[in-house]
């Protein structure tokens, strides 16, 4: 009995790493653990997969400048940011997010949402593996197609249609920045009906995105 339990646990540990290799294939459209939860609870969800070429570059720029400005330069984890996060935690100070896009992708694909050191410890090697196996373009494509943008709204195409009634390819710079800044808390932050604070934050990201040049070369070169 114990042997079977250990084998089952081992299989669960290995499975995500096997799936990462499967997700290299462009015709595979992964789903997130939140999407699976919604299916199990019979809630349903809206997700419409689109390729990276069908997503407005201004959205990619905005998301990178909002969520992971060093996306093209790190190997899945921004270790300098992680070090500052640990230092802030040890000092009892309010912590910054610290999660790169590969870390968020690994969490969305394989883990759960609530914060814990256990989840973070599992997330780090998964993020490094995801970044190593997948190209930066493919990783970004998966991230933008599984990210949550509201209750039951997953992926940028569903988000663009839901919040702005346009396809992801037609998003404006302002719409893209609003969607980007809503990512950390898509349930409370409504990109389609932004408050003053969200609009102000979107303005900051919009300006950063306009000067993103070298920061996005790994996606468009």
From TrEMBL:
It is found in: Cell inner membrane. Its EC number is 2.4.99.28. Its main location: membrane. It is a single-pass membrane protein. It catalyses: [GlcNAc-(1->4)-Mur2Ac(oyl-L-Ala-gamma-D-Glu-L-Lys-D-Ala-D-Ala)](n)-di-trans,octa-cis-undecaprenyl diphosphate + beta-D-GlcNAc-(1->4)-Mur2Ac(oyl-L-Ala-gamma-D-Glu-L-Lys-D-Ala-D-Ala)-di-trans,octa-cis-undecaprenyl diphosphate = [GlcNAc-(1->4)-Mur2Ac(oyl-L-Ala-gamma-D-Glu-L-Lys-D-Ala-D-Ala)](n+1)-di-trans,octa-cis-undecaprenyl diphosphate + di-trans,octa-cis-undecaprenyl diphosphate + H(+). Residues 45-197 form the Glycosyl transferase family domain. PANTHER family: BIOSYNTHETIC PEPTIDOGLYCAN TRANSGLYCOSYLASE, MONOFUNCTIONAL BIOSYNTHETIC PEPTIDOGLYCAN TRANSGLYCOSYLASE. Belongs to the glycosyltransferase 51 family. This is Biosynthetic peptidoglycan transglycosylase. It comes from Rhizobium leguminosarum. The lineage of its organism: Bacteria, Pseudomonadati, Pseudomonadota, Alphaproteobacteria, Hyphomicrobiales. The gene is mtgA.
